[in-house]
Each structure stands twice: as C-alpha cells, then as structure tokens.
Amino acid sequence: MAIENIPEIYLSEPEVTMDLFVHDFKMTSNVVKSKVNLSMNMFSFLKEGKKQVHFADTSVAVNKQQSLLLKKGNWLWTELLDTDAIYYCKLFFFSEKKLTDFLSKYTNGIKPFQEEIPYFIIENDDYIAAYLNSLSSNIYTNHSYSDALLSLKFEEIMLYLLNKYGNKLEFYLQSLISKEISPFKKIVESNVYSNLKLEEIAFLCHMSLSTFKRHFSSEYNVAPGKWLQDKRLQKAKTLLQGGDLKASDIYLDIGYNNLSNFSIAFKNKFGISPTDI
Predict the structure, then answer these.
(1) Distance separating alpha carbons of residues 12 and 4, to the nearest angstrom
(2) Which InterPro entries match (predicted)?
C-alpha cells in the first residue's frame, strides 16, 4: 500500500511551502486504511460519509455530525460512503507557524500538563455549516487577496471553536506546537545564563510576571526561580571543577550580579563554597 503525502498530493506545486491550504475532497468508493503522511495539522470537516483514523495507540471514528482536528503525523484512515453513495469533506490545513502566531495573538499561552492526543472531535452545528459554505478552495486560489482572506477564515474558525470548547481546545492546540520550536522555551533557554531577572525574561516573552510564572511551571513542572538557579549553579560547578577559573571569573557569566550572592547560593546548594573546589 502506497503512502499518501498530504496535503502535497493536492498541491499544484508540492515543493512550495504554504501556511494555509483548503481542499474540497470527494469520492464515490470506499477506501479502507490508507497510509497517510500528514505533514500539516488539519481540520477534516465531514459533510457526507464516515471517517475512522488509527493512531499509534488509539483510534477515532466520526460521522457527518462531527468533524476532526488532526495532528500532523503518520496515520491510517478509512473513509466510507454515506447512504447517498458519496464521501465529501473539506480539508483545512494549517502550519505550526500559523498556529503559534494565532495562539500568541489571542491566548495567554498557558499549557497545563496533560496526556497529548492526536485528535480533537468537533460537533458540527449551524455556525460551522454556514462557515463551510464559505470555505471553498476555488475562492482562495488565484485571487489578489487569497492569503489575507484565508488567514481571516482560519482565525474565524479558531476563535469560534475556542469560544465553543474553551480551555479544552486551547490546551489541545498548545499540544500541537513542537517543543523544540516553542517561542516561550526559546526565550527562556537562551537566557538561562544571562543576568536578567525573571520579570525581564517575562517581558521578553510578552507576559506579565504572574503569567510567566504560571506558564513556566506548566512547561517545566518547577518554579522558574529554582530552575534557573539550579541550571546556573550546576554550570558554575562544572566550570570551577575544570581548575582554570575562579568564582570571581565566572559569577557574571552564569547570571549573578555580585560575587557574594553567587558564593552564598553556591554553598547553599552544594554544601561547600566555590573557593573550596
């Protein structure tokens, strides 16, 4: 069974990187367990038929009263015709960058620890039905304002669903962002050994100090002050054990503004002063 690379097989220029893409998908015969390499997160708005998706450790099935939000990855899916002998869905693909920009713009970015799942079930309603009538792939191609229009449609459905499902959906959307490219983590970890205060790092993250602390504790499962101090002192110990440097040579480089505070923190953590190493 061949692997279908989606959405690339639907693009006229598969090599072109896109942040948003709409595709109207129809078929008139059942397809059982297609191997799919989904390279973008995707809404699958089901209008006719049934869909089942198999993931690594679970599966989900929906009918035309429901739709799916699917995480990118390698999945198996089965698409079955409805009683009218047709399968029809609208697929709306979005990049991680587009999602990150949206969450930064509209949410507080808090992601509590929870088991990550690769799908989110959406219950179709009158608003979604009206929305889908305006979401035609023909509208968003070869148009002077195609990108701007599609961005507005993406924000529209995201905001509507956030209003409908609240934190449950927000936490799911946060889980779709790869940890290695999380803007929050990039800022935090690039300032581990700076002498910036917590409120200054929070400012760089476009957050208040209280929001920053909540977000940090959610991401790292520890308070930010303790995490930063442990990281900095462990590096200091490694540098001092090298034998070529003294405490006075390194305290500024690992985030302390004065030698006295560094020496006290070091002794409290390791039981010995930095001069004893």
Answers:
(1) 15
(2) ExsA-like_N, Homeodomain-like_sf, HTH_AraC
- What is the model's pTM? 0.64
Which residues, listed in sequence order, are joined to residue 75 by a DSSP beta bridge?
36
Examine residue 7 and say whether the peptide bond preceding it is cis (omega within 30 degrees of 0). Answer: yes
Domains in the chain: ranges and CATH: 3-111+119-175 (2.60.120.810), 184-277 (1.10.10.60)
The count of other CB atoms within 10 Å of the CB of residue 103 is: 20
Cα 155 to Cα 32: distance, rounded to the nearest angstrom: 33
Query: In Å, how far from its chain's centre is CA 43?
Result: 15
Residue whose token pair is 């205060």: 197
Tokens of 128: 């979604």
In tens, the pLDDT along 91-107 reads 999 999 899 889 988 88
> pLDDT for 25-79, tens place per residue?
998 888 888 889 999 999 999 999 999 999 888 899 999 999 999 999 999 999 9
In the block, residue with structure tokens 């208040």:
208
For the chain, how long is the longest CA-to-CA vector?
Answer: 81
CB 100 within 8 A of CB 183: yes
Cα radius of gyration (the chain):
25
Q: The tokens of 238 are what?
A: 């490694």
Tokens 């970890």 label which residue?
189
Beta pairing, strands 3-6 & 31-38? parallel
How many other CB atoms are found less than 10 A from the CB of residue 233?
A: 20
Under 8 Å between Cβ of 219 and 212: no
Task: Report the 10 Å Cβ neighbour count for 220.
Answer: 13
